[in-house]
Design brief:
Length: 204
Amino acid sequence: MATQRLTLPLSEADTRRLNVGDVVYLDGQIYTCRSLFQIKVVEQGGAPPIDVDQLNVMLHMGGIMRRMGETWAPVSLLGTSSIRFERLGAQIIEKLRLRAIIGKSTMGKNTMNAMQAHGCVHLAWGALIGSILAERVVRVVDVHHLAEWGPLEATWIFEVENFGPFVVDIDTRGNNLFDRVTEQVDKAFEKAYEAFDLCNFTYT
């Protein structure tokens, strides 16, 4: 495992050298994404309201935002589960040329295959506290679809500094940290069952 502090936008070389278990911090601009954004871009053929050459890190998030005069500030960044977006994951990676997706949990096989093909990684949210992570947002650069979708589903563009830590749970070689942990847990259960003869245990 290694710790990487990366400047955005990410290059393919940046993501190809990351391995499952690496810890990542980010500097630069990211944008948030939930269901309505992905449906509009993929299923409705809408043009994304971002420059995909300059913004290639997507944050699966529903944050608490506060109006500060003419600007906005995040109160808490609340990560949402990436597996919720598995149905459109592969298409959104290809269409938006993503290099990284940040979110809770992990993603499925179709998205993993797209990540392997296009040089994208998934960064797991872990035990980060949303209010602390919000302090690492230097400024809110812009917001799109606020009036029609509301602050939860709106597409926020953040400039961040030392944003993290996140753990690489899917790398560009098809490795998945969650799958590895599940395998280790299953093996530990098997040993426990054998040690206590639980395989032959019956209720009476």
